[in-house]
Specification:
By secondary structure, this protein is α+β, with helices and mostly antiparallel strands. The chain has helices at residues 2-14, 34-42, 66-74, 231-247, and strands at 22-28, 47-52, 57-62, 80-85, 89-94, 104-111, 121-128, 135-141, 156-163, 170-176, 188-193, 203-213. The chain folds into two domains: 1-85, Alpha-Beta Plaits, CATH 3.30.70.100; 89-213, Immunoglobulin-like (Sandwich). 19% of the residues lie in helices and 34% in strands. The strands form two sheets. The chain has an eight-stranded antiparallel β-sheet with strand order 9-8-11-12-5-6-7-10. A four-stranded antiparallel β-sheet has the order 2-3-1-4.
């Protein structure tokens, strides 16, 4: 009982929304006069919203996870793509070393202060493919060497607990006062499962290199340089991939 109480307390603190509000920018496909009203309505309790329908931009200052904002916008029938996240930002695509687990996701880091050297970061993201309603660790490791998968990333630099829901998804949004975003570039994120009875080490499920990412008003891309398609084609490809993952059987971790 005491262990359960302490565990729940940790995760409630992890999801606090009274600090760490940051700005997020979304490119949105506006159609018709009712679009602005619909989006304002769905985001009315989420934060401070600024909409520029001519540019197809929705800017919000919020303490909610980016995925929650994204879902609300797309629930109005409009496609949306996250194009800017906070000020000094970094991102890790967590999709390496997961051949046996299929655990994958995206973790973003955004600085809390514009003062050089002042620590503190918002950690925001999602991880899919985990066992249902389980406890895991989001570890930042010393280096970004994934030449040998998740085993060549060095020692743990920082560690935070995360928890999956009944569908095996961890929705992550918390403030970490120990991290300096500028110091994270080139390191790696590893998602691990705590060691079971009789095992000496936790199991590394998936990992990714932390790279610099676009902040607010820093990403004006409409065409993806990697393959020449529009951001909306990329969004359609992402939706198809999400559906494939949902249809696939969940691995037992």
């Amino acid at each position: 009982m005491i262990i359960d109480f302490l565990r729940d307390l940790i995760f409630k603190q992890q999801k606090m929304t009274d600090r760490g509000s940051i700005q997020m920018e979304f490119a949105v496909q506006f159609r018709g006069a009712g679009c602005v009203a619909d989006i304002n309505k769905t985001l009315s309790d989420a934060g401070t919203v600024t909409i520029d329908a001519d540019k197809g931009s929705v800017l919000i200052e919020t303490s909610l996870p980016w995925l929650d904002i994204h879902k609300r916008i797309e629930a109005t029938g409009r496609r949306a793509v996250l194009t800017g996240f906070g000020g000094q930002s970094a991102v890790a695509m967590v999709d390496h070393g997961n051949e046996l687990t299929n655990v994958r996701g995206v973790i973003r880091f955004c600085t809390l202060s514009s003062t050089p050297g002042q620590k503190g970061a918002v950690v925001d993201g999602t991880i899919d493919g985990l066992s249902h309603s389980g406890t895991f660790q989001l570890n930042v490791h010393e280096c970004g060497d994934i030449s040998a998968g998740c085993s060549s990333v060095g020692d743990v630099y920082d560690s935070s607990p995360i928890r999956s829901d009944e569908n095996g998804r961890a929705t992550i949004r918390f403030v970490n006062d120990r991290l300096d975003v500028n110091d994270l570039i080139g390191r790696s994120v590893v998602i691990t499962q705590p060691a079971e009875a009789g095992a000496q080490e936790e199991r590394r499920l998936s990992c990714g290199i932390i790279a610099r990412s676009a902040g607010i008003f820093q990403n004006y891309k409409k065409i993806c340089a990697c393959d020449g398609v529009t951001i909306w084609d990329e969004r359609n490809k992402s939706i198809a991939a999400d559906r494939d993952r949902e249809a696939a059987p969940t691995a037992s971790l």
